[in-house]
Amino acid sequence: MKILVTGATGNIGRMVVDHLVSLGADDIRALSNHPERTAFPPEVEVVEGYLKRPASLPAAFEGIDRMYLAPSLETVTAVVDLAHRAGVGHIVDLSGDDTTQWQPIAQAVEKSGVGWTHLYTGEFMENTTDWVAQIRATSEVREPYPDSANAPIAMDDIARVAATILLGTGHLGMTYNLTGPETLTRASLLQHLAEAIDRDLSLVTVSPHEYIALLEPTMGDFAPWYVEGLATRVDNPQLATTTVADLTGYATTFAAWAAANADLFR
C-alpha cells in the first residue's frame, strides 16, 4: 500500500511522515515544494509538487492508494479531482466543521468520489506561542477573555491520528472531532506555562478592540473573527473529546506540551 503525504515539509505533514515510519509503513511518498530541503528517512520517497499548483501533482498521485490531504482551500477541488482520476482510494483530510473556514475542504473531498475520512480540529496548543514575545518581555499576556475555554490539541496528536487511520481499516466515511484531553481557560493555559518555565506570569485583561489591534499585524482580517470566537467560549466552552486517545492510545495534555516546549517561552 503506497501512501502519499501532502504538505510533507509543513508542521503537521512532517509529523505524519514520521508517525507513518514509526508505525512501520514502508511505502511512503512525501510531497514537497522544495525536495532539496528535506531530510526524510531513506524509506521515504520524496517528490516535488505543491498543492497550490495542481499541474505539479499528477506524477505524485501515480500509484497512490491512500493520501493525507493538507488544507489548501484555494485549489482543493482541482487537487481531489486529480486524486480521483489517479485512482486514489482513500483521502484523510485535515479540515473543519461548518462553523470554520475549512469546511469546503471536507465538502470537496466528499464530492470527489474518493473514499474519505475527515479530521476536524479546533485550536492548536502551538498557538500559545503567539504569547512568546509578551512573556519574554513582560511576564504578562494581554487578552480580553481570561475565562474563555477550549480544548486545544497538539499538532503531533493530529499527525499520529492521521497516520493511524492511513494504516488502519474501518475509517472510511468517518468524521473525527479531535481535541486535546481537557478543557482549559486562557488563564489556565498561562498558569501551565508559568509552571513549565518556573516563572510568575500574569494575564492582563484588555478590551476586545485593543486585542484585535494587537492581532491584526499577523492575523489581518481574521483577527475580529478569532476574538469573537474567544468571546463565545466564555459561556460555551469547547468540550474535550476522547477521540485521540481512543484511536491512538493516548492524548497529549497541555501541561506535558508546555513542559516539552518550555524553552520557547524562556
Question: How does the SSE layout of this entry go?
Answer:
Layout: E1 3-5, H1 11-22, E2 28-32, E3 44-48, H2 58-61, E4 66-69, H3 76-86, E5 90-95, H4 103-111, E6 115-121, H5 132-138, E7 140-143, E8 149-150, H6 155-167, E9 174-178, E10 184-185, H7 186-197, E11 202-205, H8 208-219, H9 222-235, H10 243-248, H11 254-260, H12 262-265
Parallel strand pairs: 1-2, 1-4, 2-3, 4-5, 5-6, 6-9, 7-11
Antiparallel strand pairs: 8-10
Report on this structure.
The protein has helices at residues 11-22, 58-61, 76-86, 103-111, 132-138, 155-167, 186-197, 208-219, 222-235, 243-248, 254-260, 262-265; strands at 3-5, 28-32, 44-48, 66-69, 90-95, 115-121, 140-143, 149-150, 174-178, 184-185, 202-205. By secondary structure, it is an alpha/beta fold. It folds into 2 domains: 3-121, Rossmann fold, CATH 3.40.50; 125-152 and 181-239 and 253-265, UDP-galactose 4-epimerase, domain 1, CATH 3.90.25.10. Helix 8 packs across helix 9.
